[in-house]
Every structure is written in structure tokens, then in C-alpha cells.
Amino acid sequence: MSSQRDDSGASADPADPADPAARTPPRHVDLHTHSTASDGLYAPAELARLAHEAGLDLIALVDHDTTAGVTEAQAAGQALGVRVMPGVEINTTLFGAGDAHILGYEVTPDDASLDRNLSLLRDLRERRGERMVEKLRVAGFEISWEQVRALADGTVGRPHIARALINGGYATDVSDAFARYLTPGKPGFSPRYKLSADDAVRIIRSARGIATLAHPAAIADLETSVLPRLVAAGLQGLECYYGPRNEATSYGYYDDTTVAWLVGLADRFELIATGGSDYHGPRMHPTPLGGRYVPPVAVTRLREAREAALARPAEEFILPTPEL
Questions:
Q1: What is the pLDDT of residues 70-83, one digit of tens each?
Q2: Would you give the distance in Å from CA 56 to the centre of its chain?
Q3: What is the CATH number of the domain that holds 220?
């Protein structure tokens, strides 16, 4: 069973093994970032520029249900010396109860099955957004779907509805909008399509990506039930390093004890220990870009897993279209 080493290792970049820079292990990495291709505040190119300013050598762009921002971020990053790992984040239902987010690292962005699956998920996300806006309108809020759609450069999500509520004077910030209007039991909430975590893992594997369970510390029965089942489905990573301390709330902070526990689980289940800031932009999450140390060996191990994925037969998986 492999251990999580705190060193950088060395491995060829499967995206461009002839590029000497690609073979240089990074020193400062953030494996969880978002752009305007989904619900982040910064365009992919601007995100790469901010990563450079933050002293990062590599970021993973894991927008929700889309890889549309990857090419732009990679082009901007290349000019600045910041490598951008292609990725995606998929929201799921965990075996019928509770939520779990599955990150896909080193996916092939133009994979046909991945594109088809993510296109379906984006369509379902938009339909949910329309239902939420309609519920708010019925409750007396003066916002429209057109206003919400105009706030999104790519995939529409609840943060865009939150921003429309802020613009309408109904909330002070995104967190306030979520707490008052967009969570279960609140006037604008509508449940999302219940994609299973197992199927999200299969979607990522079909694109030769590395499926990783995001911010898992609060998931019930993680050790006894969730990880065994997801590993059987093909899970290969666990997000163990997440968020610096927010002194006011401690939101999203994994202290040393939590990190040690998660790293121990990663070792036990032979998973890659990953991590990152979950950066969306200021006032979206308390973690600044690059604000959580992630051992660079995570990148080496992800690349090695990607090389192994490329060497195995394709595992195509297509989601059936749900009846809504």
C-alpha cells in the first residue's frame, strides 16, 4: 500500500512529454479552482494570471459540468509559466441520501462521451435554475431567468441566481442569498437531478480521468460505506487538504487532525491524496487562490494514474436521459 509522501517526485506530463517544462515537478499547486465557465467570478485566462500572481506553478481547473474553460486557461497559463490541469467537478447524490462532489482530474476535454454526459448535466442544471427562478417569482421576487442567464458566461448554477438576488437588493452576498433563499426549505430551492456518485466516477473514467472525492470530511459513513463502494466503482483520489482557517466561522477548514485522518484513509484505500482551495473568487469561499498547501507529489501521482488510464482499454459510459 502506497504512502502519501511530502515530496514532488518526477514524471513526464502525458499531455506533452517532449516539453522539458512539463516534466519539471511543480512546487506550488492548487488542485481545486473554478472560472466563469461555471460559477467562478474570473474568466479562465484571468484565473491563470491570478495563479501566476499567487506564485502557483500549476492549477487544476475543475468547473462544474464543463471543460469549456480549459483551453483558454491553458493558453494563458503557458505564457505565464503556469500549467493548467484539465478537470471537471460533478455534483452527485450519495446513494440516495446526502450530496457528494466528484472531481475528475486529467480528463480528456474533447472526449466524445464526456462531452455528451456533461452536456446532459448542464441541460438538467439549467432546467433546475429555471424552476428556482420561477419559484422566487411566484414568491414575489422581481428577478427573471434572462437576468440570471446574463450573469453566466457558461454553466448556470445557484451562485448566478444568488448574484441576481444581490443585484435586486434581496441579499448582501452569495452566502446570504444561499442561506435565505436557495437551500432546502427556502422559497427558491428546487432539488437537482439525482446523479449517483458511482455514475459520476464512471463518467470520469470513461474520459481517462482520475475520479476523486471532493471535501469529504463531513460525509457520513465515509470510512465504512462510502469509500468502499466508490473505490469499487473506480474512485482513485481523496481530497485531503482543503481550505485555510476562517477565524470568524472556521468554514471549510481541515485542521491537522482532519488532514491526518483523511490521508490515513487515502493510504488505506490506496487513493491519491489531493487538495486545493475550491477557489471561486472573493466573497464566494473564504480560501484565497493557492491558500491551502497541497503536497506536489499529488500531481506526480495523478499523472502516473493518467498514464495508466491511457494504457488500459476505453471504458465508455453514457448516462441515460432521465424522464423529468
A1: 999 999 999 999 99
A2: 18
A3: 3.20.20.140
